[in-house]
Amino acid sequence: MAQKIVIKGDVVSSESLTELRTIENGYICIDDGRIAYVGDALPSDYADAELKDFSGMMIMQSFCDMHLHAPQYPMVGLGMDLPLVDWLDKYAYPLEGEFKDTEYAEGVYRRLAKDLIMHGTTRVSIFSSLHTDATLVLMQELENAGVTGYVGKVNMDRNNMPGVLEETTEESEAETLRWLKECERFKYIKPILTPRFTPSCTDELMAFLGDLSKEKKLPVQSHISENLSEIEWVKQLRPECKEYWDTYNDSGLWHDRTLMAHCVYSSDRERKAMRDYGVTAVHCCNSNTNIESGIMPLRKMIDEGIKVTLGSDIAGGDTLNVFEVVSDTVKTSKVRNVYDSWESSHVNEKEAWYLATSAASEWFDSKPGFAAGNMLHAIVLDDSELMRKTLSVEERFYRCFYKRQQNAIRSVWSEGREVYSYR
């Protein structure tokens, strides 16, 4: 017998980049966690179903954070005065080296997983460290907390930190295979191949990962064109490649199941390759401004038909709160628009929220919005303490990215399960 649950409240969903659907005093009906109905009237066959009554609160899609570095969580806010490569060497790499200690990893990752859920993020794509055992700990803690998505054991066999954070090519390949075998035990967290970025991976390792991606149909995540000095470094390391993206494409790592973070300085040719191959760009506005990398031409990439999602990019980014990531995406888009002499328009809150939710739907075998057949991923947002007497549901939606009351998130649903509640 299917378990039927009805969730009542002011429903808000992102149907497309330009379409926001709101239903005041609406209903979401789920069968065994899967959405069966969304509307303004309760179907008769749900009259006796369990009712979760959040009247007066907004029921919104939960967030997808498509790029963050789990072992960097303890260093949020550190090194914000440094450019990318210096920041990695002084802060990120030494800290990641600590994750050879699985007991330490367990404490950090349990906190991270809990905080993701409390902030309304239920689906992710996450970088771990190069340590297989700590990566498995991360996957378990995410699964325990109710987070779904992808985790990658980082591969980096060159330009690492000897004695602190290093692996040989042979070790990286063998540990990747061991990790993939162990991943079979997880239900909600899946593996994603994770070459850190071209400067950290030899040609041999990149080719190995590309073959593995093809053989096992595994997705890929990495970084591209984040920083000007990084791009020059890639040219020195791979002079035979015309552009940065060629280093991934030549190894079989550039395809329609590839996530590429940043894309701040992607050329016309690189952006065209992203569109043509179906590569997804992950915009990380907080990180790109914190370490002064630049600002992605977000509107241009959207208009060119490139798939784009958002990431917090902890710990270059300074917040797990995707409400803030959405508002910062709007703000940086406005700055970029000024920089580009108002050649187009900035991205608005409705569009940025789509990028933080529905834009990643294909990565999780779902359709945009609260579509029938999707597993329910939702947050319930209480704004009853804020002045709202004359505000529409849509106006309250726009406001929530800038102003929320304390403990505003009252319930979080992931894969049809309520995984957090604050009553």
Fold topology:
Blueprint: E1 4-14, E2 20-31, E3 34-39, E4 50-61, E5 63-69, H1 84-97, H2 102-118, E6 121-127, H3 132-145, E7 148-152, E8 154-155, H4 169-182, E9 189-191, E10 194-195, H5 203-216, E11 220-224, H6 228-237, H7 244-249, E12 258-262, H8 268-277, E13 280-283, H9 285-290, H10 298-303, E14 307-310, H11 322-339, H12 349-356, E15 378-381, H13 393-399, E16 409-414, E17 417-421
Parallel strand pairs: 1-4, 5-6, 6-7, 7-9, 8-10, 11-12, 12-13, 13-14
Antiparallel strand pairs: 1-2, 2-3, 4-15, 15-16, 16-17
Description:
The chain has 423 residues and is of the alpha/beta class. It has 2 domains: 4-62 and 367-421, Roll (Urease, subunit C, domain 1), CATH 2.30.40.10; 63-335, Alpha-Beta Barrel (TIM Barrel). It contains 13 helices and 17 strands. The chain has helices spanning 84-97, 102-118, 132-145, 169-182, 203-216, 228-237, 244-249, 268-277, 285-290, 298-303, 322-339, 349-356, 393-399, and strands spanning 4-14, 20-31, 34-39, 50-61, 63-69, 121-127, 148-152, 154-155, 189-191, 194-195, 220-224, 258-262, 280-283, 307-310, 378-381, 409-414, 417-421. The strands form 4 sheets. The chain has a 7-stranded mixed sheet. A 4-stranded parallel sheet has the order 5-6-7-9, with helices on one face. Strands 11-12-13-14 form a 4-stranded parallel sheet. The chain is globular. It starts with a strand and ends with a strand. The relative contact order is 0.16. The model has no long low-confidence stretch (mean pLDDT 97).
